[in-house]
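debug: dumping io for the single-chain case to check the tokenizer round-trip. Nothing else runs in this session.
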Amino acid sequence: MNIKNEVLSILDEVLSLKGRAAGFTLDTPLLGAIPELDSMAVVALITTLEERFGFMVDDDEIDGAAFVSVATLVDFVQGKLAG
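debug: decoded output
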């Protein structure tokens, strides 16, 4: 499984980006740069990541650092899968 591609697919799906996420790179900024990524979308995104990858995210693990860019979100997912 390509984690980056799966994360991009989830971003596209949850944020209703209509394929825009396919053009995102690891350097693409997320929080504050994509209007669709508001606080409610973050909750939906976390829930979808949990369901798709089979891990749980504790409340104290959630902060803006994971949503700075595509790379930080991919790193967050990889860390959860490794843990």
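debug: round-trip ok. The chain has a mean pLDDT of 95.
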